[in-house]
Design goal:
The chain is an alpha/beta fold. It has helices at about 5-10, 20-30, 40, 50-60, 60-70, 75-80, 105-115, 140-150, 170, 180-195, 210-215, 245-255, 280-290, 310-320, 390-395, 425, 430-450, 470, and strands at about 135, 155-160, 195-200, 220-225, 230, 275, 295-300, 325, 330-335, 340-355, 360-365, 370-375, 375-380, 385, 420. It is built from 18 helices and 15 strands.
Length: about 475
């Protein structure tokens, strides 16, 4: 897919890939083999009819393709950009057996963008109202998906969001150059047109508790508050001025528009040298943001490049833009000056030992290899945990030792009657599309609960034999 030149894009927050033209999209769609038993659909957490929408693109029916996507996916323009298709739907494409898979994610983005640019907000026919009211707590991927599916089932839905804009991590966590905010806003506006009521600046657990929502006229509650509590390194100096969690750093830039200072009166985060600690997608987002804000940007990671959990595309883009990767390196302390400001990061060299529980080789410190890197900003990006506010104010909700909510793994029903959950609040920090998949399942469970008074588990599906290779 055509992209901005790295020499240009490292200085702006415009989206990196330009997207397909109509001609390129049709040519790519023509590569689809139209398998009788499409493995790509099995690899999609939200069960999109992939051959169906790809076939419509091949025929030049772009708006129809977008509507086909919307049947199962509330946020196709979002997932077309940030979903790890390479390990999900595209990894099951038969074409990948002998070459490159059909570019399902890029085609999804094309169709969704075509509808957005055409201003197409056609609402599907909705069933009669059931008279049931559902409260959705959190407007991230899980909450928005659950809300959309519940409305299509005839229920009235109110979404409560703690921040001043809806969208959750899609708005505050993912940078503009990877996911433009106008795209997210279009999808949220579509949900409003479906009938969702979205209430911002409303912290459930403070303004109202989950129990108060249930007592105040809601028939069920879905909790999709994500995992927004950052994990720190637990080394000396993390309280110094200039040390930000990746969450705070990205929120200042994305939601509070620090990159437009002084147009927006956000405390500036412009630095000379920023060191991001970690190797995931969030670390790449923070490091690439720092580069665009004019800093020399370095990523410190305790394992090797091959062990980085970030998408290969994100690592490649970071390197293209001039982000320096310093692998097999681990911080030991942050050093400050007499004014309490960061001036350096002390690190130690690492070497890889035997594999640990994650399957990756465990990093082991090399004795006597400590060294200093001068810097004025350190951004730990080591993952997140769920905020404990809702469990603390809802006594009947059981949590795991990691602070996530205990849920039935099939129905996503919590320990409290009438309360369901999905996304990172259940799994810990994961992907946008996995949160959406759980939001869909929880919506079906909620529908059954409010209409029948109980939730039944579906019978396990038998895995069908994949005989597509014989067809090719």
């Amino acid at each position: 897919m055509p992209e901005q030149d790295p020499r240009r894009r490292r200085h702006n927050f415009e989206e990196v890939p330009y997207g397909y033209t109509e001609e390129l999209a049709i040519r790519e769609a023509q590569r689809c083999l139209k398998c009788k038993k499409p493995g790509c659909v099995k690899g999609c957490p939200v069960n999109i009819d992939i051959p169906g929408f790809v076939s419509l693109i091949e025929q030049g029916k772009f708006l129809e393709a977008a509507r086909k996507l919307k049947e199962q996916n509330t946020l196709p323009a979002v997932t077309g950009r940030v979903c790890p298709q390479e390990v999900q739907c595209e990894s099951r494409c038969i074409l990948s057996k002998k070459g490159e898979s059909c570019a399902i994610g890029r085609l999804e983005r094309f169709a969704a963008d075509y509808a957005i640019n055409a201003g197409d907000m056609r609402i599907p026919d909705l069933p009669p109202s059931t008279g049931k009211r559902i409260a959705v707590v959190g407007s991230g991927p899980a909450g928005l998906t659950a809300a959309g599916d519940l409305i299509k089932l005839g229920h009235a839905v109110t979404v409560f969001e703690a921040f001043h804009v809806a969208g959750g991590v899609l708005m505050y966590g993912i940078p503009e150059f990877r996911l433009p905010k106008r795209i997210v806003q279009f999808e949220i506006d579509y949900l409003k047109r479906l009938g969702a009521e979205i209430i911002t600046d409303h912290v459930v657990g403070k303004a109202k508790t989950v129990d108060e929502l249930l007592a105040g006229g809601y028939d069920a509650v879905f909790i999709g508050t994500g995992a927004g509590l950052p994990i720190f390194m637990r080394i000396p100096g993390e309280n110094l001025i200039g040390c930000y969690s990746a969450n705070e750093y990205l929120t200042r830039s994305n939601l509070m528009k620090a990159f437009l200072f002084p147009e927006y009166a956000t405390a500036p985060i412009r630095s000379k040298r920023v060191i991001t600690v970690g190797g995931g997608n969030v670390a790449m987002d923070a490091a690439r943001t720092a580069k665009r804000l004019g800093a020399e940007s370095i990523i410190v990671y305790r394992r090797g490049r091959e062990e980085m959990p970030a998408r290969s595309e994100e690592i490649h883009h970071a390197e293209e833009e001039g982000v320096q990767l310093m692998v097999l390196t681990n911080p030991t302390r942050i050093i400050g000056d007499e004014n309490g400001r960061v001036v350096a990061l002390e690190c130690i060299k690492m070497e890889l030992g035997e594999p640990d529980s994650s399957g990756r080789r465990k990093p082991v410190p090399v004795p006597g290899s400590e060294f200093l890197i001068e810097c004025d900003t350190v951004v730990p990006s080591l993952g997140n945990r769920p905020n404990p506010l809702i469990p603390m104010t809802t006594p009947n909700l059981k949590t795991t030792r990691w602070g996530t909510l205990e849920c039935d793994p099939i129905t996503f029903e919590t320990s409290q009657k009438g309360v369901f959950a999905g996304g990172d609040i259940v799994t810990g920090a994961a992907t946008v599309i996995s949160a959406m998949g759980q939001g869909k399942i929880a919506a079906r469970s909620i529908h059954e609960y409010v209409t029948t008074g109980k939730v039944t588990k579906p019978a396990p599906k038998q895995e069908e034999k994949d005989d597509n290779e014989k067809e090719t």
